[in-house]
């Protein structure tokens, strides 16, 4: 039987609509408009597209979008000075520095210069520590989106075997922390994992965040498992460019219980969660009730 497709596009539209409703209420009741500042250094084409989409969606939910486009040769001192200004600006509730940064800039230094309360990407070491110790954190957007889809589909995740393939700081590790906090039994796999197929086959929840086109075939998937495919890989097939995930959708869909497609799965949820985090940051900054 073919798996249920988890529709990230529709889910993300719901999340954005809820954020927009909350933003409208904030404006009416408190005169507040949440603001998101996005900093782009250089002209990486994929980053330019992401930043443009973030700006459009931020304005669509009624928030202020502040876009700062800096030259690729911008010095670290100038970038840090901009971040200090944004940290001090009361109209800015969220700050996102688009990664990757050009090679002469130290990403860790730059990210850790952001006020943790405005770190809507959840990459600051304070937020990483808060998440790891089960305290109130800013949670990285992509894993947060994955968790929302998992909860929506499965309800309680308690006791389930979860396998996360990939251990990056932006997806794999925070995803594993979130699943652990949901009382899953979590395995993190990576490029040195032995018998990856066997490890994946144990998973009730399989999250793939690798960046290798279609590397996980259907026969690595436990029958009935919920598969979340974070991978976004651009490949050429039949003379056309195409986006595919890290999971071989065609074979996995025959085995899984539910699966996210690529495109239209995890991707749209990421920006929706960024907007939700910005709203949360605004509410926290003003001591107001946070959105559910
Ligand atoms: P990274 O390159 O930072 O991490 C990839 C991880 O995959 C590493 O931990 C690596 O292991 C592991 N890996 C590589 N090869 C293998 C292998 N053969 N077997 C098992 N594990 C392997 O990538 P990201 O986490 O940043 O991104 C992963 C994917 O998710 C990419 O396709 C990216 O485009 C996508 N992405 C999608 C987002 C969205 O909004 N949907 C947002 C962010 C990312 P090791 O650590 O040992 O090297």
Automatic annotation (TrEMBL):
Keywords: Amino-acid biosynthesis, Histidine biosynthesis, Hydrolase, Methionine biosynthesis, Multifunctional enzyme, NADP, One-carbon metabolism, Oxidoreductase, Purine biosynthesis. Pathway: One-carbon metabolism; tetrahydrofolate interconversion. Residues 6-121 form the Tetrahydrofolate dehydrogenase/cyclohydrolase catalytic domain. Its EC number is 1.5.1.5, 3.5.4.9. One of its GO terms (molecular function) is methenyltetrahydrofolate cyclohydrolase activity. CDD domains: NAD_bind_m-THF_DH_Cyclohyd. The keyword NAD does not apply. It catalyses: (6R)-5,10-methylene-5,6,7,8-tetrahydrofolate + NADP(+) = (6R)-5,10-methenyltetrahydrofolate + NADPH; (6R)-5,10-methenyltetrahydrofolate + H2O = (6R)-10-formyltetrahydrofolate + H(+). GO terms for biological process: L-histidine biosynthetic process; methionine biosynthetic process; purine nucleotide biosynthetic process; tetrahydrofolate interconversion. InterPro entries: Aminoacid_DH-like_N_sf, NAD(P)-bd_dom_sf, THF_DH/CycHdrlase, THF_DH/CycHdrlase_cat_dom, THF_DH/CycHdrlase_CS, THF_DH/CycHdrlase_NAD-bd_dom. Residues 140-284 form the Tetrahydrofolate dehydrogenase/cyclohydrolase NAD(P)-binding domain. NADP(+) binds at residues 166-168, 232. GO terms for cellular component: cytosol. It holds the Pfam family THF_DHG_CYH. Homodimer. Catalyzes the oxidation of 5,10-methylenetetrahydrofolate to 5,10-methenyltetrahydrofolate and then the hydrolysis of 5,10-methenyltetrahydrofolate to 10-formyltetrahydrofolate. Belongs to the tetrahydrofolate dehydrogenase/cyclohydrolase family. This is Bifunctional protein FolD. It comes from Rhodobacter maris. The gene is folD.
């Amino acid at each position: 039987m073919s798996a249920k497709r988890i529709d990230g596009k529709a889910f993300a539209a719901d999340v954005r609509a809820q954020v927009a409703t909350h933003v409208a209420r904030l404006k009416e009741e408190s005169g507040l408009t949440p603001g998101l500042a996005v900093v782009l250094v250089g002209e990486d084409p994929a980053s330019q597209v992401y930043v443009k989409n973030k700006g459009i969606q931020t304005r669509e939910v009624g928030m202020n979008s502040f876009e700062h486009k800096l030259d690729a040769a911008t010095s670290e001192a100038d970038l840090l000075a901009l971040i200090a200004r944004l940290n001090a600006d009361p109209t800015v509730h969220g700050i996102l520095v688009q990664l990757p940064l050009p090679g002469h800039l130290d990403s860790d230094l730059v990210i850790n210069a952001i006020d943790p309360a405005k770190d809507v990407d959840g990459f600051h070491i304070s937020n990483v520590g808060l998440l790891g110790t089960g305290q109130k954190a800013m949670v990285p957007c992509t894993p947060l989106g994955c968790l929302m889809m998992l909860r929506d589909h499965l309800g309680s995740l308690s006791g389930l075997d979860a396998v996360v393939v990939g251990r990056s700081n932006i997806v794999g590790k925070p995803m594993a922390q979130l699943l652990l906090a949901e009382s899953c039994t979590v395995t993190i796999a990576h490029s040195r994992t032995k018998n990856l197929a066997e490890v994946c086959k144990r998973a009730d929840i399989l999250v793939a965040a690798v960046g290798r086109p279609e590397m996980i075939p259907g026969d690595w998937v436990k029958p009935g498992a919920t598969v979340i495919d974070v991978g976004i890989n651009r490949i050429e097939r039949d003379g056309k460019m195409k986006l595919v995930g890290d999971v071989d959708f065609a074979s996995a869909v025959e085995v899984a219980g539910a699966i996210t497609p690529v495109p239209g799965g995890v991707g749209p949820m990421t920006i929706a969660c960024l907007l939700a985090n910005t709203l949360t940051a605004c509410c926290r900054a003003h001591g107001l009730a946070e959105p559910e």
